[in-house]
């Protein structure tokens, strides 16, 4: 009886968590294909009588206004998120290997400082970052957004990959070195191929963080050519009011890339996060 009660309690908890995740996104999709009148109807209608695809059509054909900026913002977000993810995976993997395999003075202290940067919120560092980007002449450029994202994504990648590298046996690397493989050859031919689940998990987390970053993009970009999609979506709110339907449609479009990545690579996410907890 106690076992059945515990299982029932677990299932209820899982359903509550699942509902808290799915229901808001479901309402976002419903709002994007509804009209303002349907959204304010009492009692609330979960399924609109007529699908309103006007906002999606305007996103495709609009040449001026916020909908036109949305296409530019979507392109900028892809460039920034992909660039930051690739750089962080490359640099983070090398740094994680150094922290895992090499011995040097102050290694633990340096790693602690790297993790400390994860605790500091963006609002604390945004002013120094703004001053640096301004002096380098990088304001309103995609490069400034990539560098700002890397400053916060790179420590996470180093931490995740360090845990994963720790689970790879030293013997594999030693045998490769005995056979004449250099250290870099060992990294790129042995360590990284065995770390695909960890790289996938780190890459997905890095992409999602860079894709969803709003505050730094809002401060560092003020032109249409440099704004990301998260900043463009905020522009649907004006002094006149908020276009909830158009904002919902833009939100659906913005959520498609990270959702697809999570669905396609969900197996690697689980493997990448759990493998580091077991050392070989």
UniProtKB/TrEMBL annotation:
One of its GO terms (biological process) is transmembrane transport. It is a multi-pass membrane protein. GO terms for cellular component: plasma membrane. Keywords: Cell membrane, Membrane, Transmembrane, Transmembrane helix, Transport. InterPro entries: BP-dep_ABC_trans_perm (IPR050901), MetI-like (IPR000515), MetI-like_sf (IPR035906). Residues 74-265 form the ABC transmembrane type-1 domain. CDD domains: TM_PBP2 (cd06261). The keyword Membrane applies. It is found in: Cell membrane. Gene3D superfamilies: MetI-like (1.10.3720.10). The chain crosses the membrane at residues 9-30, 78-97, 109-132, 138-161, 199-220, 244-265. Pfam families: BPD_transp_1 (PF00528). Belongs to the binding-protein-dependent transport system permease family. This is Carbohydrate ABC transporter permease.
């Amino acid at each position: 009886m106690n076992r059945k009660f515990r299982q029932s309690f677990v299932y209820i908890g899982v359903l509550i968590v699942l509902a808290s995740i799915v229901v808001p996104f479901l309402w976002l999709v419903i709002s994007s294909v509804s009209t303002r009148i349907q959204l304010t109807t009492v009692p609330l209608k979960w399924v609109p009588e007529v699908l309103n695809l006007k906002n999606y059509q305007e996103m495709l054909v609009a040449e001026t206004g916020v909908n036109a900026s949305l296409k530019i913002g979507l392109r900028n977000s892809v460039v920034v998120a992909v660039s930051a993810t690739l750089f962080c995976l490359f640099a983070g993997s090398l740094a994680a290997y150094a922290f895992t395999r090499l011995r040097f003075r102050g290694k633990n202290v340096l790693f602690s400082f790297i993790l400390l940067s994860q605790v500091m919120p963006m609002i604390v560092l945004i002013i120094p970052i703004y001053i640096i980007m301004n002096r380098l002449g990088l304001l309103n450029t995609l490069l400034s957004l990539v560098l700002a994202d890397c400053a916060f994504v790179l420590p996470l990648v180093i931490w995740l990959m360090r845990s994963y590298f720790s689970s790879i046996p030293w013997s594999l690397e030693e045998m490769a070195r005995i056979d004449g493989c250099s250290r870099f050859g060992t990294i790129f031919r042995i360590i990284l191929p065995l770390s695909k689940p960890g790289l996938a998990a780190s890459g997905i987390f890095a992409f999602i963080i860079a894709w969803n970053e709003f505050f730094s993009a809002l401060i560092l970009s003020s032109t249409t050519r440099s704004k990301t999609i998260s900043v463009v979506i905020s522009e649907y709110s004006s002094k006149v009011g908020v276009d909830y339907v158009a904002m919902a449609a833009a939100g659906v479009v913005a959520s498609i890339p990270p959702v697809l990545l999570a669905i396609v690579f969900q197996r690697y996410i689980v493997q990448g996060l759990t493998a580091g907890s077991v050392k070989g």
